[in-house]
Amino acid sequence: MNKNLSRNKIAESIKRHKGVGHRARLRERFLQGGLDAFLDYEIVELLLTLGTPFRDCKDIAKEATKKFGTLREVLDASPEDLQQVKGIGPNNIFGLKLFQAISERYSREQIPQKKLLNSSEAVAKFLQKSIGREKREHFVILFLDSRNKLINKNVSIGSINSSIVHPREVFREAIKASAAQIILGHNHPSNDPEPSPEDVGITRRLEDASRIFGIEILDHIIVTKNNFSSLREKGLMI
Question: How do residues 166-198 score in pLDDT, each as one tens digit?
Fold first, then answer.
């Protein structure tokens, strides 16, 4: 009896929920055409519904988008900042942070076949998608063919030092990938893209080794989620 009563209450809640039809239409639009025609707040709304089954999320999503500015900024916001928006709490944050985490993992693991990386801007954009928002430092080696097209990559996690960036390991992987040239990259969780003395020192050490192996280091790009710097363009590479 109690179970049936509980089910009836849930059913009545669903009937009374004014956003049920709107939510169903949003989901149908997504299944039919993806996200291309969606406004930022509509995507936020969809994600909020994952943790808010019996409440209309349209106004909450609009308020979050207004407060932070864009979909990307909503996703980048901390749980504490998100909860400053009325209607967002620990439960419905779930959808936003899950989507962000899946997107970042997908970007890290996906290696575009023969992606052209022929400028510092192109490299920075590629790196920002995969490691730009990481809370720990990630060191990336991009292996390229003679036409500046990506053929493979290698990622190490941890503060950049000689233990994770050793010339022997770097060039062994480059030879294994049959790379003609490589690009170094890493992120600064501090959001300051300026190279540190240690960044310059490790780059110079790898440049010395590159002459022995005959594999040119084209650049070392440092990224944050919104900015980047190129050691080559700053004149910090030989």
Answer: 898 899 889 988 999 999 999 999 999 999 999
